[in-house]
Amino acid sequence: MSSPVLLNLLRCSRSSVTKSLLTGRSAQHTCTAPGQVGGAGNKGVGVRFVSGAVSVRPVTWDSFGIWDDRIEEPVLLPSSIRYGKPNPQVSLSRVGAASVLGLRNQNEDRLRVARIHDDLQFYAVFDGHGGPHAAQYCYTFMEKHIRDALEEEDDLEKVLKKAFLDVDKALHTHLSYFNNRSFLNAGTTATVAMLRGGVELVVGSVGDSRAILSRGGGALKLSRDHTPDQKDERKRVKRSGGFVTWNSAGVAHVNGRLAMTRSIGDFHLKTSGVIAEPETRRVTLRHDTDSFLALTTDGINFLLSDQEICDVINKYQDPTEAAEAISQQALQYGSEDNSTIIVVPLAAWGKHQSSPIVYSMSRSFASSGRWA
């Protein structure tokens, strides 16, 4: 799409694309860009004809990247020009989140949503263990370390790797001030997502919290659980001098103490192969199929599959209601842990239907073994 055509299209939808434009009920108010055939005479609803170098081809609104009429968001102009299609700006006020205590004495989970700058957003969940110290520190300072890394690097995968390692070092210094060795045993998972230009999504993760993208109604996992069950993770632990044991419920632990192989903190296990370096993944969002991004802690994802999480969320029109429903669903399925979730609505929010949810009694028994 040429820049003049794109700019004209963006001018016609300066702040948002209205519902009447999507449904075609007010075709007389539709703008026609140079090189396009449009207006009330078109038979196809929501269709434009864009002229290429050789021929004229029909293009649906979805292929332009127009988002569902339930979520009317402003267009990010620089990003739209860069990618050649309108890209929506996700409003932080629309992001849903929930965190419940479960049967624990305190909530060691933390979540954070922030705007780094106009076209870059930051979402994160931290699941603490051994006390809330590590999760609280990441909640407070991870954003700062990301901002610092952005001053030196533009590649978001490299930014996240640097920020994770830097916050891990800073946490060690911070906890050492208390002169209490037990504080150094505190740790946390970290699953951080950064969305740039409404299109570029990069996820970095350590531990067993998850990032899930709903694409076409299906669940696309963007992170991997770092547990001793993973062959490559277990090899690193053993190569570093650590060992792996399994408890009575069949859950693997590093040195019999930690059920994950990557984390921020857990300094007593650093020499046993537990590392803070995240695995990262980059995804280009598809406005016609990507409904939402969900970040969850294991109080949720141990009881609900990725697809079940997507199905439950797709039943709701409001992201906050969806997040609350997921956390309550985990409790109903027998979760004893803190349960935290962030739901970030994307361009196709509300577009895909969910499948029926079936309750399984076996979940309660599984959860009892998990948190014993």
UniProtKB/TrEMBL annotation:
Its EC number(s): 3.1.3.16
GO cellular component assignments: mitochondrial matrix
MF annotations from Gene Ontology: metal ion binding; protein serine/threonine phosphatase activity
KW Hydrolase (keyword) present: yes
Primary localisation category: mitochondrion
Coiled coil ranges: none
Leader sequence residues: none
Keywords attached to this entry: Hydrolase, Manganese, Metal-binding, Mitochondrion, Protein phosphatase, Transit peptide
Named cofactor requirement(s): Mn(2+)
Domain PPM-type phosphatase: 94-346
Any Pfam family the entry gives: PP2C
UniProt cross-references to InterPro entries, sorted A to Z: PP2C, PP2C_BS, PPM-type-like_dom_sf, PPM-type_phosphatase-like_dom
Subcellular location: Mitochondrion matrix
PROSITE patterns: PPM_1 (PS01032), PPM_2 (PS51746)
Keyword Transit peptide carried by entry: yes
Broadest EC class assigned to this enzyme: hydrolase
Family that this chain belongs to: Belongs to the PP2C family.
Protein name from the UniProt record: protein-serine/threonine phosphatase
